[in-house]
Amino acid sequence: MTESNMFPPEKRSPASLSASSTSSESSTALSGDPVSGDSVSGDPYGTGPYAANPYVTYAQSQRVGATASDARRPALWEPWYGIGFRAATVRMFRKTFVFHGRASRGEYWWAWLFGMLVQAVCIAIASVAMLWAGVGTAVWDDAGTVAQLVCWLLLFLPDLSLSVRRLHDENLRGWWVILPTALQLGAFAAFFAVLFVGGMIDGYAGGDDGSLQVTVVATLTMLGMLLLALLASVLLMILPSDSRGARFDRPPAVSDTAREEAR
């Protein structure tokens, strides 16, 4: 007969009380008492001070009216890294008049692909319409040019604001967006300048032998600057993101954020 059977609990020694308590806890763990939440019982919730409540965690991760993918979808004013084609297209039009904040590389290049597809579709529709009408080749070419111009005008403002936000994501000011355009204008200006200077030199020399050489030099100068403009437009949009570009963000007020999440 042990001490725990001979004496009541109030008369047992401290050592026996400790051993009895340990034995009781072990038997509870092995029996898988669901109240204790021990790992042996398979209860995933637990009752200890560090046990997490999965229902609270799930509720905190959801937003009003959100879908299953909204848990990893950033707010509209934030850049979205790893965005897809459809989301990038929708976001470009939703932020048409937003020239602050940032845009990831995915946001820009998916939207650029969308613009190219739209222009191709417009040209194809115009060409098929002209072919069906049986018009001449000259009118056919004009229709394709007009369709391309209309698409460019429709996408101009969304693309401009998106380019500014992409520059902000690189920690660059939006004014850099005019660099490719400035180089393009400079290319045509250089073409006419070379022609003008070359013509003056030929006039002073009293001959027209150098007119062909002047035209070739002017054309090469223009093409070189146009190529430089193309490289600048690509390089400015493929630079990596810089966290310091967050200075261009304008987070909305708490009430605006709640209203946006409730949509």
Q: Can you put this structure into words, describing what you see?
A:
The chain crosses the membrane at residues 109-133, 145-164, 176-201, 213-239. This is DUF805 domain-containing protein. The chain is mostly helical and 263 residues long. It is built from 9 helices and no strands. It has helices spanning 3-6, 14-31, 54-61, 85-94, 105-133, 137-169, 179-205, 211-238, 254-261. Helix 4 (85-94) crosses helix 5 (105-133), helix 5 packs antiparallel against helix 6 and helix 7 runs antiparallel to helix 8 (211-238). It is flat and about 70 Å long. It starts with a helix and ends with a helix. The model is unreliable at 9-66 (pLDDT under 50).
How would you state the average pLDDT, rounded? 75
Amount of helix: 55-70%
Largest sheet: none
Overall radius of gyration: 36 Å
**C-alpha end-to-end distance:** 73 Å
**Regions with pLDDT < 50 over 5+ consecutive residues?**
9-66
Structural class: mainly alpha
Shape: flat
Number of helices: 9
Structure summary, number of beta strands: 0
| H and E string | HHHHHHHHH
